[in-house]
Amino acid sequence: MQKSYLRTVLHNTGWFRLQPASPKTPWYKSRWLVQIVAPVLIVLAVGAGVGLAGLGTYQLVSGTNLFNTSTGSLGVPSSASVSMPKGVGGDQSLNFQPASVTVAKGGKVTWTNNDVANHTVTSTTTPSGAGSFNSGNMGPNATYTATFTVDGTYKYFCAYHYWMTGTIIVTG
Ligand SMILES: [Cu+2]
Chain-wide mean pLDDT for the chain? Predict the structure, then answer.
């Protein structure tokens, strides 16, 4: 008795009244989607394309590296940097950093002396057909760059500190 009364009240207030089923529009035909969302996405996509193309052109023209292009065909970098870290001249637990680098044939390696002591970059073994290399004395903040045109494994050390040894791998 009480239940049916409640149902009658709710029904009369419209709480339970079912709306006539509206024909369902497929999502891709929704006016909202077509008129607002799609244009916004198109504008964003075009904008991103223009933006990336612009940055690429800027990099080509100016030579500023926005996108990393210094990799060879197999993803081997054509240049690498090695540091003589601060304290390495007096601490045998330190070394060239990184102690081993890999570059593509024709690539360059640049060493920077970030220590307060003098150092050298002096080759000990080189692949056959490759010349030796030697930076000579490098004071604090000095840099030295060597180019590697023969592939293979190169070993080098610092002539002042025997524990400072490094490897350069040049891929063909
Ligand atoms: Cu040294």
Answer: 80
User: Mean pLDDT over residues 144-167, rounded?
Assistant: 98
CA of 145 to the centre of ligand 1 (A): 16
Number of separate domains in the chain? 2
Model pLDDT for residues 63-78, shown as the tens digit of each residue: 555 554 455 556 999 9
Distance 141 CA to ligand 1 centre (A): 13
| Whether residues 165 and 104 fall in one domain | yes
Q: Is residue 162 part of a domain?
A: yes
pLDDT classification of 156: cutoffs 50, 70, 90: very high
Q: Write out the two tokens for 78.
A: 């054509």
Residue 97 Cα to ligand 1 midpoint, Å, equals: 12
Residue numbers of the domain that contains 119: 79-171
CA of 172 to the centre of ligand 1 (A): 30
Cα 164 to averaged position of ligand 1 atoms, centre (Å):
6
DSSP letter string, 4-31: HHHHHHHHHHTSSPPPPPPPPPPGGG-H
Q: Where are the alpha helices (DSSP H) in 19-138?
A: 31-32, 38-62
Classify the phi-psi angles of 98: left when phi > 0, otherwise alpha if psi is within -120 to 50, otherwise beta: beta
Ligand 1 mean position, distance from CA 158 (Å): 5
Neighbours of ion ligand 1 (CB under 5 A): 119, 158, 160-161, 164
Q: Give the pLDDT of residue 35.
A: 73
